[in-house]
Amino acid sequence: MSNEKALQQYDVKKYRTPDGYTSDIAVFTITSEQKEVFKPAEMELKLMLIQRSALDSEGRPNIEASKWALPGGFVEETESAFESAQRELMEETGVTGIHLKHFGVYDKPGRDPRGWIITNAHYAIVPETKLVHRQANDDADKVELFTVEEVLNLDLAFDHREIIKDAIKAITNDLLQTTVARNFLPDHFTYSELQAVLMTVTDDPAIHLKQSFQRKIKMLPFIEEVPGETTNRTSKKPAKLYRFNDVEVGSSIYTRAY
Amino acid sequence: MSNEKALQQYDVKKYRTPDGYTSDIAVFTITSEQKEVFKPAEMELKLMLIQRSALDSEGRPNIEASKWALPGGFVEETESAFESAQRELMEETGVTGIHLKHFGVYDKPGRDPRGWIITNAHYAIVPETKLVHRQANDDADKVELFTVEEVLNLDLAFDHREIIKDAIKAITNDLLQTTVARNFLPDHFTYSELQAVLMTVTDDPAIHLKQSFQRKIKMLPFIEEVPGETTNRTSKKPAKLYRFNDVEVGSSIYTRAY
DNA sequence: CAAATAGTGTCTGTGAGACACTATCCG
DNA sequence: CGGATAGTGTCTCACAGACACTATTTG
User: Fold this and answer.
1) Does the model's pTM come out above 0.85?
2) Which stretches make up the Nudix hydrolase domain (chains A, B) (predicted)?
3) Better-scored residue on pLDDT, B251 or B137
């Protein structure tokens, strides 16, 4: 392979290279507060942020200290940014197999005072139960959940305000345009549970209205009824259970009622 | 601002950093071949690739020589990857104001034999007319257009096969889910011209069937008729002209006929 | 029984899809 | 006039949305 000769002569330091390559994660969860038994839960979409500590892990003053930020860290040479995000999410929540998706790159000159640092932004969907043992680590004073309204009023580190805005846009879009909502739900769920998840990100009356949504769910090709099974967790009358199947979704804005 | 003290102690070389940060561009165009007058054009989606030259601009053996590749180059410290892509596209086509969109990051260890090199992938939509004076440059032997069927049979450099597959997926999706199709069309277009663009990426009968699509176009909120104007460029009978307006599109898979 | 959520019967309007037709212009 | 594309009239079926109702369970 003639690449060998070319490689011998290639000077890896010919170009100015970035000072850092990092991965950040917007960890979303839906808190579902069941006020009473036999009631559908009230759900709220929340984002997990850390408050950067005053001193870093080596005892030196930390950059952007005391500001709120997305969890994240430096990508290692042996991994991709996505793998790095998986690793960090594992370290943070102790859980693997979490829905994780890349949604943007942030590399504007000056975005990080430490130098030319590029970050890959991901969002993760973590069931609330997996966040119970969330904990501050070396770099963080506190770990807290914020609603999407609260979060933009915080004092945020770096360009994380912009990243978070994009993250909210990305998850909203994906919840409505793909079947990622399944990651917020148990395997078998009632119409009102799915509805509650979707209502956290849309005001669409077709989703908010009980009968419309109830009728619609039966006609969706990517959702099927679980035959025979019912649950009482949302009401006194037993409710049918549904599950996502693997039918692909996808059409065009030119062909459907939009 | 207490960042100052932190910055003084921050060692920018603490972490292993990437060996390069690049931007690649999948330049798409639709070639429209009008076989006869008064006929709608037959359109085909094509991708512009360069063939890497044997020697680089400094006369040394080039890496991945003679393979086909996406145009691209190193990002400079003073710009973002997106700006770098804009600059490269300008250098390549001599045109600005082109539709350009980031669709992915490729950073798998080993993807580039020269080292730890991260690339940002973008796709661009360039009207065929703006590609007429396309030309080989220092790094490229040839510049050519390929159909999406042809392109995957070529000997492609680096991981560009994967990037190109993703680019095709991204543009297909965007053409059907957003109004980017406008970038392939004149400001005022006939129903058959829009139809021809969409047919390059979908087999949906609702788009292929004349009367269905003709009726549908009138009801789309983001397209409006240009009052009074007609054209004969696609038929003997004068055809109505339409234009995109700025109504936003967006709904959910749970609420419409999918 | 009242109360609360789940779920259905039915009507109306709208639009998708199919068929057949008309309209306009060129040569 | 024939031929080609643009565009309409009309019917049918399916579904969204609204209203009013029924069903199942708890306390």
Assistant:
1) yes
2) 20-172
3) B251
